[in-house]
């Protein structure tokens, strides 16, 4: 699913054997960006609603931010990371 080959950014070489697999890289990136997305959208909620903010509303904004930012960052890692190119995914799976 990586777009690097279609865009001409891939040289087709295999990654080193000790490189992180694509699934772990996506999971770690999504986990980190979950916290950042929640905090970022919570700030946006505070700016949007000001003194009318309620706890359920701020939690709803934070949850939406966490889901949207983490899923977007995981998708971007999947599309543009060299570890997620088909030959590297196949080489990692074959080593097991």
From TrEMBL:
Residues 1-94 form the DUF7875 domain. GO terms for cellular component: ribosome. The keyword Endoplasmic reticulum does not apply. Keywords: Ribonucleoprotein, Ribosomal protein. Pfam families: DUF7875 (PF25285). InterPro entries: DUF7875. The keyword Acyltransferase does not apply. This is 40S ribosomal protein S23-1. It comes from Theobroma cacao. The lineage of its organism: Eukaryota, Viridiplantae, Streptophyta, Embryophyta, Tracheophyta.
């Amino acid at each position: 699913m990586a777009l690097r080959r279609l865009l001409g950014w891939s040289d087709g070489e295999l990654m080193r054997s000790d490189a992180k697999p694509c699934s772990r890289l996506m999971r770690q990136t999504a986990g980190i960006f979950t916290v950042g997305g929640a905090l970022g959208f919570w700030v946006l909620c505070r700016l949007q609603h000001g003194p009318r903010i309620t706890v359920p509303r701020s939690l709803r904004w934070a949850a939406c931010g966490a889901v949207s930012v983490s899923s977007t960052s995981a998708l971007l890692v999947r599309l543009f990371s060299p570890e997620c190119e088909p030959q590297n995914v196949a080489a990692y799976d074959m080593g097991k």
